């Protein structure tokens, strides 16, 4: 991958990676750091990466960076995913995106990851398995559980007719 | 599978457990083993939910089963088929079967509707704010630091090889005296005396000339120009009365060599060019150097390319003077 292809990848995938990181961390600064670190790591190896594989490589790198980040933050005890806007309780009004966001935030990280890769990026089971280094069966199980949890949360709010 | 779980085989049990293919009895054995060896337990995020609370809430045995896409759809397994439908994994026949069950069973339509709402949609307003910071041009400076260092090293090696082999420079007065008995001292400035001795190359005609010189080292820092430039400066500025030697100068040495018929000396106006050519030969890389000047003739910047490495710089006014002596 040359510099031009790398810069094109920035244009194409930086937003998706940012949303992916934001949904995990719920903190804009931290999410930006993850995206920057991801792209720096990818640039470091740009000569080894084929341009048509860069998206998968980016999300794989972002996922590993996120896991390391979350692990370190948890150990240091100052893990803050709280964003005042995002952490506000669901409104009594019908605000499905906010409710879903809250439901998503309650999922374990691995479930959140697979369902985000599935819905936001449209990845197939085997692509998600490759990114997260799970088996395809595991990916299906986690997506199933994530959908169940999300549905149950929506149901509990009684806001969805 | 064996009913004895130990350090050698627990991973296989673990994998089957995670994939939902482990029998309940073996799963119980695995849990007992992991209780005894908690260090082997994976992070919670990778584990199926098996906490005491959730175990009472969920039929965890059901979790261990794999989804059978060919099974008859009923109210017990409808949820699995709804999710499969949502994911686009259902065959047409099974989709019809599910639709029929949903239509016939009160409450399932709402469940299906809730599942449809679990499809996440990316917020197009949520974008990375400064993409241009991520682009290659912003990352280059770090890389360029190393490149510049490498270029400087290559240039230094090149210059060293240039002056150490085809052109010899020496500050050793004894060496100069013994090898060049005709060496003369030239007055370069008020403070600096430089002793020069020239002789044609002994290697082969047309190669670089050998130059040996010796200076008063106590005043060396007062020289206004660097090594290569200094020699040229001395040749240009002084009457080389005692050194009337015709030097066999290769045309490649300089772009504009001129022979002074009175003194027999050749003046090199652009010493950078022979240096860059020597580097090119030594490293087998393309070497280019170009300097820019402003209207007043002051140096404005330079461009250096060695192979794929390119370095350029604009010089501010304060640096013009410091580089004035470098040709």
Walkthrough of the structure:
The complex is a heterodimer of chains A (161) and B (327). Chain A is built from seven helices and no strands. Chain A has 161 residues and is an all-alpha fold. The radius of gyration of chain A is 17 Å and the shape is globular. The termini of chain A are far apart. Chain B is α+β, with helices and mostly antiparallel strands and 327 residues long. Chain B has 13 helices and eight strands. In chain B, helix 5 (78-86) runs parallel beside helix 7 and helix 9 (136-164) crosses helix 12. The model of chain B is unreliable at 49-58, 138-144, 164-173, 182-233, 235-269 and 317-327 (pLDDT under 50). At the A-B interface, helix 1, helix 2, helix 4, helix 5 and helix 7 of A face helix 1, helix 5, helix 7 and helix 8 of B.
The number of distinct helices of chain B, counting runs of at least 4 residues, comes to 13
| Class computed from helices, strands and strand pairing of chain A | mainly alpha
Radius of gyration of chain B: 41 Å
Q: Topology as H/E string of chain B?
A: HHHHHHHHHHEEEHEEHEEEH
Q: What does the largest sheet of chain B look like?
A: 3 strands, antiparallel
Largest sheet, strands/sense/barrel of chain A:
none
Quaternary: heterodimer
Helical residue percent band of chain A:
over 70%
Strand order of the largest sheet of chain B: 1-2-3
Report the principal-axis shape of chain B: elongated
Parts with pLDDT < 50 across at least 5 consecutive residues of chain B = 49-58, 138-144, 164-173, 182-233, 235-269, 317-327
User: Which segments of chain A are poorly predicted (pLDDT under 50) over 5 or more consecutive residues?
Assistant: 82-93
Percent of sequence in beta strands of chain B: 5-15%
Distance between the amino and carboxyl termini of chain A: 49 Å
Helix content of chain B: 40-55%
Main interface pair?
A-B, 49 and 39 residues
Give the percentage of residues in beta strands of chain A. under 5%
The secondary-structure class of chain B comes to alpha+beta
């Amino acid at each position: 991958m040359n510099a031009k292809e790398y810069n094109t990848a920035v244009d194409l995938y930086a937003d998706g990676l940012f949303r992916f990181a934001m949904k995990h961390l719920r903190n804009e600064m931290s999410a930006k750091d993850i995206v920057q670190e991801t792209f720096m790591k990818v640039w470091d190896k740009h000569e080894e990466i084929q341009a048509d594989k860069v998206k998968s490589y980016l999300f794989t790198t972002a996922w590993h960076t996120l896991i390391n980040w979350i692990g370190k933050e948890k150990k240091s005890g100052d893990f803050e995913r709280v964003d005042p806007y995002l952490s506000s309780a669901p409104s009594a009004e019908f605000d499905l995106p906010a409710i879903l966001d809250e439901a998503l935030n309650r999922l374990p990280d691995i479930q959140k990851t697979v369902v985000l890769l599935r819905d936001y990026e449209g990845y197939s089971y085997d692509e998600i398995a490759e990114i997260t280094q799970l088996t395809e069966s595991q990916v299906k199980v986690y997506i199933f559980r994530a959908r169940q949890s999300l549905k149950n949360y929506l149901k509990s709010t009684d806001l969805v007719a | 599978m064996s009913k004895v779980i130990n350090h050698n085989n627990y991973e296989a049990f673990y994998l089957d457990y995670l994939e939902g293919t482990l029998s309940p009895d073996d799963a119980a054995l695995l849990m007992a083993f992991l209780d005894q060896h908690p260090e082997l337990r994976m992070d919670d995020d990778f584990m199926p939910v098996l906490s005491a609370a959730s175990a009472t809430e969920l039929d965890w045995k059901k979790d261990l089963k794999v989804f059978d896409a060919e099974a008859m759809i009923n109210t017990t397994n409808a949820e699995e088929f709804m999710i499969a439908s949502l994911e686009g994994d259902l065959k047409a026949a099974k989709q019809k079967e599910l639709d029929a069950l949903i239509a016939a069973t009160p409450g399932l339509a709402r469940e299906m509707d809730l599942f449809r709402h679990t499809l996440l949609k990316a917020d197009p307003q949520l974008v990375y704010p400064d993409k241009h910071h991520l682009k290659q041009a912003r990352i280059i400076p770090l890389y360029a630091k190393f490149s510049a260092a490498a270029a400087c090293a290559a240039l230094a090696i090149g210059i060293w090889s240039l002056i150490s082999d085809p052109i010899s420079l020496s500050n050793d007065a004894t060496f100069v005296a013994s090898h060049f008995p005709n060496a003369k001292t030239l007055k370069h400035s008020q403070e600096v005396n430089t002793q020069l001795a020239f002789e044609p190359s002994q290697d082969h005609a047309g190669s670089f000339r050998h130059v040996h010189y010796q200076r008063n080292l106590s005043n060396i820092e007062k020289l206004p120009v660097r090594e290569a430039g200094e020699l040229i400066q001395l040749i240009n500025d002084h009457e080389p009365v005692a050194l009337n030697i015709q030097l066999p100068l290769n045309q490649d040495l300089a772009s504009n060599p001129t022979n002074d018929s009175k003194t027999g000396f050749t003046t090199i106006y652009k010493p950078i060019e022979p240096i860059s050519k020597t580097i090119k030969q030594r490293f087998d890389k393309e070497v280019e150097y170009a300097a820019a000047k402003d209207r007043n003739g002051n140096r404005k910047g330079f461009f250096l390319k060695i192979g794929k490495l390119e370095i350029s710089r604009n010089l501010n006014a304060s640096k013009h003077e410091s580089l004035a002596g470098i040709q």
